[in-house]
Amino acid sequence: MKTLALLVGLFSGTALSFAPSSALLEFGAGEPTWYLRNDAVMGGVSSSRLRVNGGVLRFSGQVRLENNGGFSGIRSNPSHYDLSGVSNVVLRVRGDGRRYALQLGTRFASRVTYRNEFNTVAGQWTEVKIPLSSLRPTRSGERVQGPALDVRQVVFFGLVIGNGRAESFSLDVDWIRAE
Q: Rounded to an integer, what distance in angstroms lies between the CA atom of residue 102 and that of residue 173?
């Protein structure tokens, strides 16, 4: 049913609204696809892979610092999410002990995304709660002055690693929920 609502929302221009504790993104058939967004957009040479298997999204690769690089990321294909009435985004992740960032993009914030970082525990599934109020405007990973996040106009979700060092990484995501 959620897949049908997503398709109706995409083709009608209607925003998808979410009740607290509802799934925003699960990684099965009919869910929005994701794409890679590495530092190659700025001349870097970091590499990453994205795979969905058994309902789990795996984001892995190698961050490299050459050519002003230093990050790897993924984003969901654009849709329209209305997060009014939602206080937190909760992710169930299995990490590698590294620090990642959740990133949201909105319809009207040109080249500005909203993000906050979270830590992972190597080899363990954990739930990470990120208050929407903690997301700060950034451009190219740097904090900027910008408008506050308009929770009614979210168009993509993203995950990023860019800790200022060359490193391999691997992050599994079971689901992303509204709370």
A: 12
